[in-house]
Write a structure and sequence with these properties.
The complex is a heterotrimer. Chain B has eleven helices and nine strands. By secondary structure, chain B is an alpha/beta fold. The chains are: A alpha/beta, B alpha/beta, C alpha/beta. The A-B interface holds A 70, 72-75, 78-84, 86-90, 119-120, 123-125 and B 2, 4-5, 22, 25-26, 28-30, 32-33, 36-38, 40-43, 71, 298, 301-302, 305-307, 310.
């Protein structure tokens, strides 16, 4: 499927601002960073979690633990895929029991990824609370899941694709809406 | 071709380096799961697998079974009275019966080479070879390779000596086929009666001298000696075998300082391996067992997921 | 009842014929061979573009009757032979009961005449019940129509028994057809021992298992002055031993099978039980040696070792599968396609190896086109291309590793004692 960029909805500066705002909201909502850890959902949630943790740490002048959760083994759509996706490691090298986990992902869409990530987290321990932070909420939820922190709400149609690009993986920071090109 | 596109895993002989890498890479996160407090992931929920062993092997069978359970597959062990094989129902009929119970995958061990290959043609179930006669034991070789890679950081261009009954060993064959994909220098060593004909055409060097074979070796894989080989007259006594081929710290002096010692188990201490070596830090025999579960989890995950109708034959 | 075979290329090596000729058959016998024969009242068989030969003879088949009719019987086995271009076959005695007495030999003669469509000559066993211990009653067996003796399917392991058999059979001038296999060296073996047995992890049968017995039997032939024929010779070493024995003037002959000349041990890698046969498919070096021996006269004849099996004895684990290939219906096409069409074997040699070659071993006055001999004629269509489809075999045995292969050069018509029994793909039923 060929895609074409339809609309750039966030650039590098916009992403920075959104993450900074979310960092402040996290600190405010949790009244500090006591027992706070940040976990990104592989793949692009990983770098975003890292950045968020750094910003939160800078505000409170502490080091916030940050990890990555791989949700492949918790996905509910494996039987619908023609090939198995690659499984990667979950890298949460700290105890999450009794912690407030800020779960970070790039785009919130159906909610299925977040469901899988929460199951994966709970298999690692019993957090006191899980809060969800996303850079973009594009709607179309299929599960009763809601984000606690949102970079930007973007109404979309189901045909559109929202792509978050991050410098660590893609070499550039931006969020674009793409749509398929109809080949005739 | 990747493993998740294959119907069956019958031998390393059939696998490309890309497929082996895929399995070994997938086994890394699987090993993490085994080390957690909650050793279970839901990924194969609703899938069913059966182990059918026409030859006794508690450890391989248990390893497959727990691998399946850690992934939430339903696993069943089918008891086979091996002595009734000659007269009982045909294998085709047995497989049909199992298939219609709804199993997605069958793990098969058989004393006759090629039987999993035949079974794979008889059934729609996916078939994993858990050792067939003298032919192959692919999951053992994969766990050996996983263990080697973990310790050496790579599989490339290592010097690997395989010691013992090469002729009758499916472990040796699968290791040779696998390691040769990575440019390893493979040496096989054992008494002349236990070295198979034209073995060097497999791309290995063969030796009768243990010391010569382990010189500068990065890895030594010690095979189990089956007592029935002595009874068949292939060597005079276990004592004489031990005198010539028992691997011990003294006899490994010519190997690299950090030589890794593997053994597929169960060990005959004092016959093919000395107790002092088996209990040393160079020997990673227990780690192999853990890695076996991880590698089998990787294989089960890769083979049992995905859309069935698009699987190549 | 006259039949005129018109315009074919007649190849009759013994009589030095290789030209376009007509053959007139009258009352089951060859009446005339020549150019432009006219016979108003004869049925005409247009053989233009075909190769017309003396009837092909296979001295090594297993027709399984009596005792194993679920594998093959005299009706199906002879139809398979006719479809394969054979007018005469010799059937091995590993039946149940064994052909070790007059009654069984007569049963086969009578039943094959009644229910069969070609000539069937029984082979008696060397030892009673093929047990390898006591000699069978050769006089009775010969009187009942046996043409040779064999314990084929198993070796005569005891050297003293073999010595006695060679010595005793010498009186009658008939050969012993030996299955040369040292059962201790081959025990448990599933395929040829060599690189591929190592690669595929199957227990090997060394070439030495055959050669050791061939050497023993040649030495015993030298001792006794008997007549020895080595069945399904399959190794380079066997050929060298036979070559030396012949040079020495011993009465030693041998046959090779189409599968040993064309298929190698590499094929076993699929664990397809149709590749399992005794002796096993050998490696390329052995195949080359067999082909060389075919050309230099060391090999006396081709024989199929037709060994039909029931599906169940092949649809199983490799180790448990029965050994053998259903070979009658593919033999000629395999040799045509793989050896003649490729320029390895002259067509005249193919004809010789299927006619006078086997006939002379068992002292049979067949294999030539002589006036007033029984009109046994095989006609080959060298242009016909077909895929081997075992499900269409006349034989009950569908076990062939040639399945699915495309071959060019097939038997087109088979005439037995003047009667057209097979023509253009069909058995002519009464």
């Amino acid at each position: 499927m060929n895609l074409r960029d339809k609309n750039i909805i966030m650039d590098e500066v916009g992403m920075k601002r959104a993450l900074t705002r979310i960092a402040h909201e996290v600190v405010e909502k949790n009244k500090g960073v006591q027992d706070l850890v940040v976990v990104g959902i592989r793949r692009r949630g990983g770098p975003l979690a890292q950045r968020l943790a750094e910003r939160i740490g800078a505000i409170e002048e502490v080091e916030v633990p940050v990890g990555i959760v791989d949700i492949t083994l918790y996905r509910d759509d494996l039987t619908m895929l023609s090939t198995q996706p690659m499984v990667h490691r979950t890298e949460v090298n700290f105890d999450i029991n009794g912690k407030v986990v800020i779960l970070v992902d790039d785009v919130l869409y159906t909610g299925r990824t977040v469901r899988a990530a929460m199951d994966a987290l709970i298999d690692l321990g019993r957090p006191k609370r899980i809060q969800l932070a996303v850079l973009v909420d594009r709607g179309h939820r299929e599960l009763p899941i809601k984000a606690d922190y949102i970079g930007k709400n973007v109404p979309t149609s189901a045909q559109e694709i929202v792509s978050v690009l991050v410098a660590e993986i893609d070499g550039i920071d931006k969020v674009v809406i793409q749509e398929p090109i109809n080949e005739t | 071709m990747k493993l998740d596109r294959r119907k069956d895993l019958l031998g390393i002989k059939d696998l490309s380096r890309e497929e082996i890498d895929q399995i070994l890479d997938t086994a890394i996160p699987m090993k993490d799961v085994i080390k957690r407090d909650i050793k279970k992931v839901p990924t194969l929920r609703g899938k069913a697998m059966v182990t059918i062993f026409y030859e006794n092997s508690t450890r391989t069978r248990t390893s497959f079974e727990i691998a399946g359970k850690y992934l939430s597959a339903d696993t069943v062990n089918l008891a086979v009275n091996t002595s009734s094989v000659q007269k009982g129902e045909s294998l085709r009929d047995t497989l049909k019966t199992i298939e219609v119970m709804g199993f997605d995958l069958m793990v098969m061990r058989h004393s006759m080479s090629g039987t999993p290959h035949y079974a794979a043609r008889c059934t729609k179930m996916r078939v994993v070879n858990a050792g067939d006669g003298q032919n192959e034991h692919p999951t053992q070789a994969l766990l050996d390779m996983f263990t080697i890679r973990e310790h050496k950081g790579t599989l490339e261009n290592l010097k690997v000596a395989i010691v013992g009954d090469i002729r009758h060993s499916r472990v040796a064959r699968s290791n040779i086929y696998g390691l040769s994909r990575y440019g390893c220098e493979i040496r096989v060593v054992g008494p002349a009666t236990l070295i198979p004909p034209e073995v060097e055409k497999l791309g290995v060097k063969s030796y009768y001298s243990l010391e010569a074979a382990v010189k500068d070796a990065d890895v030594v894989n010690v095979l189990r000696v089956q007592r029935e080989r002595q009874q068949a007259g292939l060597f005079p006594s276990l004592d004489e075998y031990a005198e010539l081929y028992m691997v011990s710290p003294e006899r490994l002096k010519g190997a690299k300082d950090d030589v890794l010692v593997l053994h597929p188990g169960p060990m005959n201490r004092g016959v093919e391996i000395s107790s002092s070596l088996a209990d040393s830090t160079q020997a990673v025999i227990n780690e192999q067992v853990t890695n076996g579960v991880a590698v089998r989890m990787a294989i089960l995950f890769l083979m049992m997921g995905g859309a069935k109708d698009e699987i190549a034959g | 009842m006259k039949l005129l075979v018109k315009g074919g290329r007649v190849i009759d090596p013994e009589n030095g014929r290789d030209e376009l000729l007509d053959i007139l058959v009258n009352n089951g016998k060859i009446a005339k061979i020549g150019k432009n024969i006219r016979a108003k009242d004869a049925q005409i068989l247009d053989a233009q573009g075909k190769i017309v030969c003396p009837g092909f003879i296979d001295i090594h088949v297993h027709l399984r009757e009596p005792g194993f009719e679920y594998k093959e019987d005299l009706a199906t086995g002879t139809r398979a032979a006719a479809a394969g271009g054979f007018t005469t076959v010799c059937c091995m005695p590993n039946t149940d009961p064994v052909i070790d007495n007059m009654a069984v030999a007569r049963f086969i003669k009578e039943q094959s005449q009644r229910r069969g469509v070609i000539n069937v000559l029984p082979i008696g066993s060397i030892t009673k019940k093929q047990g390898g211990e006591e000699l069978s009653e050769y006089t009775d067996l010969l009187a009942a129509g046996c043409v040779a003796f064999s314990d084929d399917g198993r070796p005569v392991m005891r050297s003293d028994v073999m010595r006695n058999a060679l010595e005793y059979s010498k009186m009658f001038g008939v050969p012993l057809l030996t299955h040369s296999e040292d059962a201790y060296l081959s025990a448990g073996g599933q395929m040829h021992e060599g690189f591929y047995s190592t690669f595929y992890g199957l227990k090997g049968i060394p070439a030495a298992a055959e050669e050791a017995m061939v050497a023993r039997d040649i030495i015993l032939t030298r001792l006794t002055g008997g007549k020895l024929h080595i069945c399904h010779a399959s190794t380079a070493g066997t050929m060298e031993l036979i070559r030396q024995a012949k040079a020495e003037g011993l009465q030693v002959t041998c046959e090779v099978t189409p599968h040993h000349l064309t298929l190698s041990d590499e094929l076993v890698g699929s664990y397809d039980t149709d590749t399992k046969v005794a002796p096993p498919l050998r490696s390329h070096e052995h195949i080359e040696a067999l082909r060389a021996a075919l050309l230099d006269g060391t090999v006396d004849c081709l024989a199929t070792d037709h060994a039909p099996h029931h599906l169940e004895s092949k649809d199983c684990e490799y180790d448990m599968a029965a050994a053998g290939i259903s070979g009658l219906e593919t033999a000629v096409a395999v040799i045509m396609d793989r050896l003649v069409n490729t320029g390895i074997l002259p067509i005249a040699d193919l004809v010789r190896l299927f006619t006078v070659g086997p006939a002379d071993i068992i002292n049979l006055p067949k294999g030539r086109l002589n006036i007033s001999d029984a009109a046994d004629i095989t006609i080959i269509d060298p242009e016909l291309t077909r895929i081997v489809e075992p499900e269409k075999f006349y034989s009950k045995g569908k076990n062939t590793p040639f399945k699915g292969m495309q071959l060019t050069g097939w038997p087109w018509a088979t005439i037995v004692a003047g009667k057209l029994v097979y023509i253009d793909g069909n058995i002519a039923e009464e």
